[in-house]
Design a protein that fits this description.
mainly alpha; elongated
Length: 201
């Protein structure tokens, strides 16, 4: 990366940080380009050099957050252990929703709730929030393969799970992530697998 590229990305990072700080203070609809620029110490033309709209900046923040989570997921020992066992574990253990997968992600959403709460109000950012390429590649695709799920139907199954889970997470994030991560993981697991019951497991 040359000096100009480095400066470009450093400036983008300043605007990302300023935007996230503002989201912690007020709802997305009240954040302005002027405020972002003032807090980041850049001018408006610099903002528009990087983004067309605040929605573009939000989408970039969500993509960055998801990339950080996937990086964690790919280097987390428990997650790696689960992923390594997919090829040999009994089928009854290969459910698409498990606390081992949900709790780290919900904790991550809670820790980045300002960005995710804003993302749920923006169609462009929601598209980014629903991107789980790493999770799909490492977990969901191998599980569906083990169950012999038809390849041409897998995207519908994934859409069903992801969109349902994201709806629960949206409600939780909009309420300020007040309820414990473990409770929300329990709710999601029960929605997907009603036979597990609620609590006392």
């Amino acid at each position: 990366m040359n000096r100009n590229e480095s400066r470009y990305f450093a400036t983008a990072r300043k605007m990302d940080d300023a935007f996230v700080e503002l989201l912690q203070e007020k709802p997305l609809e009240y954040v302005t380009v002027k405020e972002i620029c003032q807090r980041a110490g850049v001018n408006r033309s610099t903002f528009y050099l990087h983004y067309q709209t605040i929605g573009d900046l939000l989408a970039e923040c969500v993509e960055g957050a998801n990339a950080a989570f996937l990086s964690y997921f790919e280097h987390d020992e428990r997650s790696q252990d689960f992923a390594a066992r997919i090829g040999t574990a009994p089928l009854e253990e290969l459910v698409l929703v498990k606390p081992d997968l949900l709790v780290p992600y919900l904790s991550f959403v809670r820790d980045n709730r300002a960005v995710f709460a804003a993302a749920f109000t923006s169609p462009e950012a929601m598209e980014s929030a629903a991107k789980f390429e790493g999770l799909y590649r490492h977990i969901l695709e191998p599980i569906l393969d083990r169950f012999g799920y038809p390849v041409d139907e897998r995207r519908y199954a994934i859409s069903f799970y992801i969109k349902g889970i994201m709806a629960v997470i949206q409600d939780w994030a909009e309420a300020g992530c007040a309820e414990p991560v473990e409770k929300i993981a329990d709710v999601i697991e029960h929605c997907v697998r009603p036979e597990t019951g609620m609590g006392g497991r």
